[in-house]
Amino acid sequence: MQRPGVSTSALWIALAAGLLPVGPVAHAAECSAPKVVVVTATAMKYCIDPAFDGLIQDQVRKIRQDIKAQQSAGKLIVYASTPISPRGGGYTATNLDVAASVKAALEKEYGGRIWVLDPGRYQLLPLAGRSPGGSEYLVMWTAVLAGDDGTGQDFDMVHFTGPSNMRAFFGCGASAIVECIDRYVTKRAATDETFRRDVADQPARRREFLRYYALRASSAYSPGAHDEWNTFVAINRRRPLGGQVAMYFDGRPLSPAEMETVVSPGYEFRP
């Protein structure tokens, strides 16, 4: 992750020193100190807490090392964008399980010559009682996905999780989907006390859970996935026609129009 023409290391040094400009006064009003506006290699901006710099750097290095190891083994690299946060009625632990299932399904479908990067495996830890927000995660993931030059050369394909991927995780068929997911709630509650207390035994929360996973359950409703979508649109616009990162949603390859369409931003800072 870097600003155009600035090395990654220089960016982190400037950020840690508080030297990155936040722009006009309007920026400062919306991105108040100690937060700063960071411009990524795709020119997308995020308002982040610089206290998380070290954690972000460490994770970026780790993920890049994991990618390089898989590339050295001759594998193609796929990024699987799956919602992790509970926004909209989801449940983080369930979403992490879904993300792992999407990884397993894609690696089974395409065979042993691909490696799917599951974002759920790379969580940022809280710092001094504060948890990182979506903007901190997107700075981290943009650095990984776009690379230093904004062309995403480490990736061959991106897959955005959709409803059929979610239903496959729950074991749902083409009918009685709500009842299928309700059975999951009952089954998980029998062995997961936290889930039982926070979801299964709370009628309103249980309804939100059923509504989310039966009717939404898709990266289409994830702010982070929206930013990741726009990141890959920006990446592909920088790559030659025929050399773009392949983009899929819910197991379906996207049309040229879809691949080049920017969607509403999630955590991106747009003053």
SSE layout and pairings?
Blueprint: H1 8-17, H2 25-30, E1 36-39, E2 45-48, H3 53-72, E3 76-81, H4 92-110, E4 114-117, H5 134-146, E5 157-160, H6 163-170, H7 177-189, H8 193-200, H9 203-216, H10 223-238, E6 246-249, E7 252-253, H11 256-259
Parallel strand pairs: 3-4, 3-5, 5-6
Antiparallel strand pairs: 1-2, 6-7
Describe the structure in your own words.
- The structure is a single chain.
- By secondary structure, the chain is of the alpha/beta class.
- The protein folds into 2 domains: 8-162 and 220-259, no CATH class; 172-216, no CATH class.
- The protein is 48% helix and 10% strand.
- The protein is built from 11 helices and 7 strands.
- The chain has helices at residues 8-17, 25-30, 53-72, 92-110, 134-146, 163-170, 177-189, 193-200, 203-216, 223-238, 256-259; strands at residues 36-39, 45-48, 76-81, 114-117, 157-160, 246-249, 252-253.
- The strands form 2 sheets. It has a 5-stranded mixed sheet. It has a two-stranded antiparallel sheet with strand order 1-2.
- It is globular.
- The two termini are 20 Å apart.
- Residues 1-29 have low confidence and may be disordered.
